[in-house]
Amino acid sequence: MSRVVVKVGSSSLTTTGGHLDPERVDAVVDAVAAAAARGDEVVLVSSGAIAAGLGPLGLPARPRDLPTQQAAASVGQGALVARYSARFAEHGLTVGQVLLTVDDVTRRGHYRNAYQTFAKLHELGVVPIVNENDTVATSEIRFGDNDRLAALVAHLVHADLLVLLSDVDALYTGHPSLPDSRRIETVGGPEDLVGVDVARVGSAVGTGGMVTKIEAARIATAAGIPVVLTAAPHASAALSGDDVGTRFLPTGRRRPTRLLWLAHASETKGVLTIDDGAVRALTARNASLLAAGIDDVAGDFAAGDPVDVADRSGRVLARGLVNYDSAELPALLGRSTRELGEELGADYEREVVHRDDLVLL
Ligand SMILES: Nc1ncnc2c1ncn2[C@@H]1O[C@H](COP(=O)(O)OP(=O)(O)O)[C@@H](O)[C@H]1O
Ligand SMILES: N[C@@H](CCC(=O)OP(=O)(O)O)C(=O)O
């Protein structure tokens, strides 16, 4: 038995007219249901909420402004899940909708919640259908794309495989419409992507094109999870382990889950610039970041927010969840923990970023 995260893009589920294409949704469901029948646990990360909401709202194209995108997502997500529920039910399977925002997976309490939700759904034999919570996500808190969301979910649920389904059957050396472009069968590491042209944009309804898929594959493979990228009609073959599409091999080992979210999912709210001694403490000794090693604070953040940690040249070397508000930090900079404790009370002896909340990049 293996645990698989399958991500399907907007262009594989909807018509150009902005409606769901029931036959294509059904084909994805049938492939997932067949894998579930073999004993696999599948999490489906499905885009398509915005694309499926266009037709019902009479919108001719994907709107540019956030409020209209949110409205379209609100309409389309319902239609999407209704169709999924109906088709999975024909296979005797129940689906559960999971809508995530960045906060759900970077804040400690929320993160545990998300993990437990997936664990319970699996225990109950439910197929989770995940999307970003587009109707409430604002521009600052958006994952940005579902390819990355799928990679992070794959890590969260300890998946053995991530399958990215798109409207193109593989990664090609250049845009697939160009005559010289060839299919890339295997990507063993970043060196295999040198010279591969992914610059041209994707479909009209999708968001990321190939760039976000490669980024998602990088996140998943770095965490030890292999990735197969192929077209939706090959879903069944990909889930059976056949040689289709492009396979990205693992390049690294699993890391603690919450820190992976922190490294890849969060939009940071500020920057702490640290001195050379603090750089050494963080990188060589895995130490916590103390006020004494901080030169400068930029941004507007509250305790608990994710921030970048940069050296004096401005290079970002770590990310962490900060323990103080941006307003109270400047008065603490450069001062020892003991001094702060004596002057301001024990509450000020806490690290600025605890090492458990810090991930080196
Ligand atoms: N080197 C490449 N190999 C494959 N596809 C590419 C490449 N460069 C750009 N693309 C484009 O990326 C598109 C897939 O991205 P996108 O439309 O965002 O998909 P989805 O909606 O499935 O997330 C393909 O249809 C293709 O036009
Ligand atoms: N959350 C958005 C999808 C965003 C997205 O990444 O789309 P796609 O590039 O088609 O995977 C939606 O459901 O419309």
From TrEMBL:
Q: Which CDD domains match?
A: AAK_G5K_ProB (cd04242), PUA_G5K (cd21157)
Q: Which residues bind ATP?
A: 7, 166-167, 207-213
Recorded source organism is Aeromicrobium halocynthiae
Functional note: Catalyzes the transfer of a phosphate group to glutamate to form L-glutamate 5-phosphate.
Say which domain of life the source belongs to.
Bacteria
Q: What is the lineage of its organism?
A: Bacteria, Bacillati, Actinomycetota, Actinomycetes, Propionibacteriales
- Report the InterPro entries cross-referenced here: AceGlu_kinase-like_sf (IPR036393), Asp/Glu/Uridylate_kinase (IPR001048), G5K_ProB (IPR041739), Glu/AcGlu_kinase (IPR001057), Glu_5kinase (IPR011529), Glu_5kinase/COase_Synthase (IPR005715), Glutamate_5-kinase_CS (IPR019797), PUA (IPR002478)
Query: NCBIfam families, per this entry?
Result: proB
Localization, per the record, is:
Cytoplasm
Instruction: Write down the chemical reaction(s) this protein catalyses.
Output: L-glutamate + ATP = L-glutamyl 5-phosphate + ADP
What the record says about family reads: Belongs to the glutamate 5-kinase family.
Q: Could you identify this protein by its name? A: Glutamate 5-kinase
PUA domain residues are 270-353
Q: Which residues bind substrate?
A: 47, 134, 146
Q: Which gene encodes it?
A: proB
Q: Which UniProt keywords apply?
A: Amino-acid biosynthesis, ATP-binding, Cytoplasm, Kinase, Nucleotide-binding, Proline biosynthesis, Transferase
Q: In which pathway does it act?
A: Amino-acid biosynthesis; L-proline biosynthesis; L-glutamate 5-semialdehyde from L-glutamate: step 1/2
Please state the Enzyme Commission number of this protein: 2.7.2.11
